């Protein structure tokens, strides 16, 4: 009886508390024990239409904090954006570069970055009606693009490792550093196939092949997102750019793309599908159009393929300003209101810019272009990820732990390993490499020999000089005081007004060996002008010639080495000294003369902060290079496109030059040699699928331990629609000691050999397939055939 009395009394008191203070009981959306779907619905029911539209706006974040005398606070601009726009997301809050005008002094250190994101989140929770935390998206293609973080090789170098597990480890590190300072989304990986080397952003891709790009992209997603988004160590992955962005007409960034629907499905979509199957929870639309439909307003891409066919559960975000581009660039919308309506009806959820949706989307709703239920769908997808990340329970980061997480010795060592594995040996005449460490006089020459920013690539934050090891510094650290190292820059990448070729030749003449470091640069500077989208303007101020010839916005009409670089190389070659050319660059360049006249050529792409050490490791034999090209390098611009897996018929030669590239896809040399033998094919056909096992032996027959990248290609000998002359299906990077032998096994299924037939249905056709095993697309060492006895029907 007493228990009953106290129970009734408790209910009575609780009722009084609730009557006088309804906030005594927290709303359902703040209850972490409730399913996320219920929390989303509850929160959505409490929001005004203005608050809903605000959740879809992703504003430029570097303007949203104030830094004064080391004190970090939310800026007045941020507070006004929250008050008037009810914003839910920021992009690049911690970014620093010449476009954002954030320097080492005005930007944020990792510790300051944590304070800034905490200040922004605190304002959202304490000063807004519903206390919805921010989603903070950051650029993370080869490291978090913020001051003081670890800088890895750019994506084209990452793929040149042919080592997805290593790239997954790298992505885990990037995610850890990003989440530690308050970021929640990493923009990356970029899954555009790079089949147009004149295009400015090739460095950001994994190359020209869909299978390699798919495996690298899936590895990046797994590394970013992990298995627990609430861990405080993982971030959402945003796939870029959906889709076919890397094959623009004429190489013009963002231009239209001329491909058919079958080619879209067979080549350009598979990397995105693989990344979504790996769990990717965000996708960014591309600037370009396909067959007349802008990607940011394409329901086939964003609804039918992404949602209906692939069952994508995340949210879609525009590229910066691409919703407005429907009106201003593509001219498919007459007004900003129509542009907003086109985008959201197509399935584009979030606006990267803050001006594509916002008032325009509200006006579209008012005028009847859009329904509130359509807006609710988009908002729900964004809110879901905020709950999934645990931001309502843990919106802040631990400012005291930053130093033990960001840019640690372990992370720096990993950057060196990725750089080592990315380096490609293109030529090694008479085994000039590796160089002897006992050389007494070495000349190090060239514009990229001691330029820290030129070896980092685009989307890189300002760096303290002691953070980056240049090639010159790496060689000095390797050899110490035992060798005399003479450095002469010789010339710039593009500027021809201040060359010192005579001084470079004089240094070469005194040397026993010469290391010439040439190439290109994607290094942004404060003298360059930038578009509203962040892309650099090619035209600089009068009298200013930057090194930049690659990176977003810097499309090329040729692939020549610019400035006086080739003149410098030819002059040094005339000395007769042994020469090693190291190419640091973001796209394939014309190396015809070098291939014909220079003793050794090393391709390092943009190798990141540890590039100098990694290159020195390769040059002096402490690391045996095994990187392989992931793009074909043309002999002439007139050969383009020159990607290896072109469709039948076989290409014929030109009048001036043959049709083969200078270096084919998959190419790369080693300090050792490998022998392939005993190819064995086993086919087990089942009712709905088959298991095709390809096995062979590989042996290290040379004098050094080293890695070989074994590559499996397939050719469909007779098909109902035209197919590629060969297509990579699998690969593996194998380490073997001297005289060591191992057996490599690959397994293919029906989905690996499928095509899209004349009825636009996936089909694996019966008939003969050639099985090709080799060390590059153009160096097949083992060949066999297999015959399928029946057709198969893979779902996708």
UniProtKB/TrEMBL annotation:
Q: Which UniProt keywords apply?
A: Glycosidase, Hydrolase
Name of this chain's protein: Glycoside hydrolase family 3 N-terminal domain-containing protein
SMART domains per the UniProt record, alphabetical: Fn3_like (SM01217)
Q: Report the GO molecular function annotations.
A: hydrolase activity
Q: Which InterPro entries match?
A: Cellulose_Degrad_GH3, Fn3-like, GH, Glyco_hydro_3_AS, Glyco_hydro_3_C, Glyco_hydro_3_C_sf, Glyco_hydro_3_N, Glyco_hydro_3_N_sf
Which source organism does the UniProt entry give?
A: Olivibacter ginsenosidimutans
Give the family, as the similarity comment puts it.
Belongs to the glycosyl hydrolase 3 family.
Q: Does the keyword Hydrolase apply?
A: yes
The taxonomy runs:
Bacteria, Pseudomonadati, Bacteroidota, Sphingobacteriia, Sphingobacteriales
Which domain of life does the UniProt lineage start with?
Answer: Bacteria
Key word Hydrolase present in the record?
yes
């Amino acid at each position: 009886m007493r228990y009953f009395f106290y129970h009734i009394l408790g209910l009575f008191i609780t009722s009084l508390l609730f009557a006088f203070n309804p906030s005594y009981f927290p709303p359902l959306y703040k209850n972490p024990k409730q399913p996320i779907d219920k929390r989303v619905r509850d929160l959505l029911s409490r929001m005004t239409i203005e608050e809903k539209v605000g959740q879809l706006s992703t504003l430029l974040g570097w303007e949203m904090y104030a830094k004064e005398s080391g004190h970090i606070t939310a800026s007045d601009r941020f507070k006004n954006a929250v008050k008037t726009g009810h914003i839910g997301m920021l992009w690049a809050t911690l970014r620093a570069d010449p476009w954002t005008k954030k320097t080492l002094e005005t930007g944020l250190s990792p510790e300051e970055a944590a304070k800034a994101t905490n200040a922004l989140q605190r304002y959202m929770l304490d000063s807004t009606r519903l206390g919805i935390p921010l989603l903070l998206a950051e650029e993370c293609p080869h490291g978090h693009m913020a001051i003081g973080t670890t800088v890895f090789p750019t994506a084209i170098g990452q793929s040149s490792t042919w080592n997805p597990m290593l790239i997954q480890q790298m992505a885990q590190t990037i995610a850890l550093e990003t989440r530690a300072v308050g970021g929640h989304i990493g923009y990356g990986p970029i899954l555009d196939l790079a089949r147009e080397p004149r295009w400015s952003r090739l460095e950001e891709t994994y190359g020209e092949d869909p299978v390699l790009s798919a495996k690298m992209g899936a590895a990046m997603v797994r590394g970013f997102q992990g298995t627990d988004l609430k861990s405080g160590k993982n971030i959402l992955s945003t796939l870029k750019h959906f889709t076919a962005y890397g094959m623009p007409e004429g190489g013009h960034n963002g231009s239209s793309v001329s491909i058919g629907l079958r080619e879209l499905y067979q080549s350009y979509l598979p990397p995105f599908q693989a990344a979504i199957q790996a769990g990717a929870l965000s996708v960014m639309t591309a600037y370009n159009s396909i067959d007349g439909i802008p990607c940011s307003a394409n329901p086939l891409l964003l609804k039918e393929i992404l949602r209906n066919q692939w069952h994508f559960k995340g949210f879609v975000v525009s590229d910066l300003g691409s919703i407005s581009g429907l009106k201003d660039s593509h001219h498919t919308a007459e007004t900003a209101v129509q542009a907003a309506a086109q985008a959201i009806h197509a399935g584009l959820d979030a606006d990267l810019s803050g001006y594509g949706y916002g008032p325009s989307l509200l006006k579209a709703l008012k005028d009847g272009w859009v329904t509130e239920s359509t807006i609710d769908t988009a908002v729900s997808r964004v809110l879901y990820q905020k709950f999934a990340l645990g931001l309502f329970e843990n919106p802040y980061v631990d400012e005291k732990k930053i130093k033990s997480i960001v840019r640690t010795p372990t992370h720096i060592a990993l950057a060196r390993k990725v750089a080592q594995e990315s380096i490609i040996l293109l030529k090694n005449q008479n085994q000039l490499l590796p160089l002897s460490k006992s050389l007494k006089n070495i000349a190090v020459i060239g514009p990229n020999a001691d330029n820290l920013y030129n070896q980092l690539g685009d989307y890189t934050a300002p760096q303290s000089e002691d953070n980056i090891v240049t090639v010159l510094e790496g060689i000095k650290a390797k050899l110490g005081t035992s060798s005399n190292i003479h450095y002469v820059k010789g010339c710039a990448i593009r500027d021809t007004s201040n060359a010192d070729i005579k001084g470079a030749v004089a240094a070469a003449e005194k040397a026993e060996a010469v290391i010439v470091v040439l190439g290109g640069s994607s290094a942004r500077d404060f003298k360059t002008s930038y578009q509203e989208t962040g892309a650099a303007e090619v035209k600089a101020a009068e009298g200013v010639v930057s090194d930049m010839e690659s990176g977003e916005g810097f499309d090329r009409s040729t692939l020549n080495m610019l400035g006086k670089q080739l003149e410098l190389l030819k002059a040094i070659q005339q000395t007769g000294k042994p020469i090693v050319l190291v190419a640091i660059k973001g796209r394939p360049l014309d190396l015809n003369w070098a291939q014909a006249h220079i003793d050794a050529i090393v391709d390092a792409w943009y190798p990141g902060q540890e590039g100098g050490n990694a290159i020195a490791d390769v040059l002096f034999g402490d690391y045996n290079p095994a990187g392989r090209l992931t793009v074909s390098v043309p002999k002439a611009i007139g050969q383009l496109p020159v990607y290896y897996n072109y469709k039948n018929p076989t290409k014929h030669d030109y009048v001036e030059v043959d049709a083969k590239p200078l270096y084919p896809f998959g190419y790369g040399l080693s300090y050792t040699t490998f022998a392939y033998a005993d190819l064995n094919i086993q086919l087990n056909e089942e009712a709905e699928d088959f298991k095709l096992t390809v096995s062979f032996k590989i042996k290290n027959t040379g004098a050094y331990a080293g890695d070989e990248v074994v590559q499996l290609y397939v050719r469909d000998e007779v098909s109902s629609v035209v197919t590629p002359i060969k297509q990579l299906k699998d690969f593996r990077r194998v380490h073997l000691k001297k005289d060591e032998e191992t057996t490599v096994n690959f397994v293919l299924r029906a989905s690996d050999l499928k095509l899209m037939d004349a009825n636009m249905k996936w089909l694996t056709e019966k008939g003969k397939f050639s099985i090709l095993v080799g060390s590059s697309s153009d160096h097949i060492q083992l060949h066999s055939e297999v015959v399928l006895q029946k057709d198969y029907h893979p779902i996708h």
